[in-house]
Amino acid sequence: METSEPLKPFLLAFPGPLRDRLVAAVLSGEKVMTSGLLMEYEVEREELPPVGERSALIDSHGQEVAVVELTEVRVLPLGSVGLRHVLDEGEGHTSVAEWRAGHEAFWHSEEMREALGDPSFTVDDGTMIVAERFRVVERLV
Prior knowledge:
5 strands, Sulfate adenylyltransferase, single chain, 5 helices, alpha+beta, globular, 5-stranded mixed sheet
């Protein structure tokens, strides 16, 4: 009998209303990309995920709601994010400036600064981000 390893969690934002909106956007097919700070991987001492990796999308209640597969992983400076990236994030932003303002508010939040261990953390055009494109391969709910 074959046993499979549990999937790594695919976490969007922190539990709460923002995560709920993002998970709903993934499940509806609107969100096919997400961005995180490279510094998060460095702080957690994690390797970047490889293309093809499958993970369990987790909702605010800790429930696995879908299996997603990474189709692209890129590291790029925040200042080079373009409109296609913004639209593929599926968060309703219609301009890079609007997307950036929303992401800066999140990345400058007390919760994120605490997670990074830097109470004065800020981003600028040169801040490196990890852009992950994915697809839902299985809905679990």
